[in-house]
Please model this.
Amino acid sequence: MKKRIYLDHAATTYLDLRVKKVMDDFWIKNFGNPSSLYKEGRLAKKAIEESRLKIARFINAKPQEIIFTAGGTESDNLAIFGVANNFKKGHIITTKFEHHAVLNACKKLEELGFEVSYLDVGEKGIVSLKDFKRALKKETVLVSIMYANNEIGTIQPIAEIGKIIKDFRNSKTSDFKTYPLFHVDACQAAGYLDLNVEKLGVDLMTVNGSKIYGPKGIGFLYIKSGVKISPLLYGGEQERGLRPGTENVPAIVGLAKAFELAQKERDKESKRLTSLRDYFIKRLTKEIPRVYLNGDSKDRLPNNINVSILGVEGESVVLYLDEKGVSCSTGSACTSESLEPSHVIMALGGPYEYGHGSLRFTLGKCNKKSDIDYVMKILPDIVKKLRAISAVK
Model:
């Protein structure tokens, strides 16, 4: 069987065996409902609370500030609608290249009468602090800006934005002493960056398990004490009534273990991946003509390589690489009727062709220098072949 080289860790990661090990007991042996009073229920409840405490310690939060959800999308929606539903109208600030879990939630709120400012991110994919300051209004109730972009990996100045928001609240310019609230989607950042909520100055933070070698379908939302959130679902009193339904105990335990490992190992792994990332970028941009790096070259995640290869369709390159045993992704969305470029690449202000030929390679624990060498052995010929037959020049 042909060896597969997986280079799409921003899409999802495999389950770390150390995570699987702690989950195993909760599928069959300790299967109780955490709401039950008898021994099986108490053991399940204890596992959840220990997981909550473990996560809280790593982000410098209180255990009761951690709410378990089904993943990043639910956490983003709970944060955004949970705040907005406390108001009949108001102003929200986000960026043009957020994940669709944020963008589509904001678009829905626009339909309901909210005003939304979508900030530019410039050619390097980083929010301007000056632009952010100018966007703040006395009616602003929520700011939602991702920590690190899921496509191009650029890292936003979250702590600086948090300080601006704090100063704005204290200036009495705002109509509300505790608003705007600050929400950060940290799904891509969790394995590589410091998530100390006090240092970052955030009120709400989204993390999921599938990006940090944990189980899929599980995540958490940090909600700072005192922040008022309305639930999206109604039922029992689980998760302080903000996320009713019987808890997914194995996944919660797995998430906590994965998060623990990610935070403990992030410095060492980030250093290793940064070296591989820079090696890959150097070879891509030097050995293949008309290849351009998307986003800032330094203020980006250690594992992210996103380039535009002009004169080809990104999807075609992905399919050719797949046939050769390499998994990567493109920012473009292909359907039978249309080919739309990535909204993230387009937000950088470049021409249409940059989005049309964008490719994302995201490294992980399993990748080595030999993987990159293999890609660079086959990719130049693939690009040459596709350019020869492409209508896009």
About this structure: The chain has a mean pLDDT of 94.
